[in-house]
Amino acid sequence: MKKLITIFILILMALFFSTNLLFAEAETPQPQAQPEAQPQPKLDTGDTAWMIVATAFVMLMTVPGLALFYGGLAKKKDVLNTIAMSFATYCMVSFLWIAFGYSLAFSGDIGGIIGYLDKAFLSGVKIDSLQGTIPEVLFSVFQLTFAAITVALISGAYIERMKFSAWVLFTILWMSLVYVPVAHWVWGGGFLAKMGALDFAGGTVVHINAGIAALIGVLILGKRKNTLLVPNNLTLVAIGAALLWFGWFGFNAGSAVASNGLAAQAFINTNTATAVAALSWMFTEWSVTKKPTVLGLASGMIAGLVAITPAAGFVNIIGSVVIGAIAGFLCYFSVTSMKPKLGFDDALDVFGIHGVAGIIGAVLTGVFADPSINEAGKGLLYGNPGQLWTQIIAVLVTIVYTSIMTAIIFIVIRIFMKIRVTEEEEIVGLDSSQHSERAYNL
Predict the structure, then answer these.
(1) First CA to last CA across the chain, in angstroms?
(2) How far apart are CA 349 and CA 249, in angstroms?
(3) 20 part of a folded domain
(4) Tens digits of per-residue pLDDT, 218-267?
(5) What confidence category does residue 14 fall into, taking pLDDT thresholds of 50, 70 and 90?
(6) Structural domain tally of the chain?
(7) Which of 54, 84, 188, 281 has the highest CB neighbour number within 10 Å of its CB?
(8) Domain holding 184: CATH number?
């Protein structure tokens, strides 16, 4: 298994390296007139301090936030395996992102599709190298935390049936072949960025990407023996959800990449949309089932956090209220009505919450983007209907690409190993069958 993973990493790096060389030769720049000298960027200690804090916040979202949230939702016999998927993912992505992910996502642009490998292992990124007003090495770590949580989010759909070794290989391939290109398209100067697609902090890059991968994966994996959602510890779920909300301030406000008014606006938009979505889900559930639940509140919170993510730095406070209200209401029905009717086994509703709310947020950004908040975005309500169409195109491109590549990755993994645990291992529980451990020794 170790040899297999090593071989795959080497193959991926060789392919990326050779592609970079070919395009570099084909795109040798011609001499051009020298532009006027631009002011040199300077390090801002306030921006740097804030971004160090924001990066730590986003790391907190994956471990322990997401790990506890997912772990509390899993069955008692699968808690540790579920937590291990988040922990292992963060560790693997931490290495892969520095090795080649950051360079391919954020170093130059080859045809709008991918970057170069000239910053592999942060080559050439010195202690005084800047990205805007912060150290580039700090910017790279901030982006690392986004890559990590995107892959970790997917695990919630696959739990209680996927072999841990298959998850390890999936993480390597999916981050390399799906997350990195999409991040480049939207944030690294790729073709979606050139089209003018707006995604302040990851509605498309993170949540639609993860939600669609979750849906395709569960369709391939098939259903579990017991598809009921039986949380083993709702206290852990509540703690995990609270940590996610806390960490999300770094996720969204940190995406301003500065300590300024835009970061503050993203902060209040995030809090407002999340609170409204939680209430929207709670009152919808209350009216349907006659009982408001803690799980419903937590789920509504996550739906609001996801939906406001692409819009956080583009909309005003009214936009955040509307986005939150719509997300809480629609995601409730996507989980309680759509999933049962379609019959797929998305264990922890990754598609129903992250995929659906990500689409809602990305599209509504094209409606509510207010140029007085951020001059880079002007939506339908402010006289630019074209922005809504651009948002829809970005959503559709991400859905198609992620669907195809996720399916291909599963096919490749199946060539080398079994993806699902045996029926006996599933019944016993993955804590025991995959890790020889138990979460509770009572």
Answers:
(1) 34
(2) 23
(3) no
(4) 999 999 999 999 999 999 999 999 999 999 999 999 999 999 999 999 99
(5) very low
(6) 1
(7) 281
(8) 1.10.3430.10
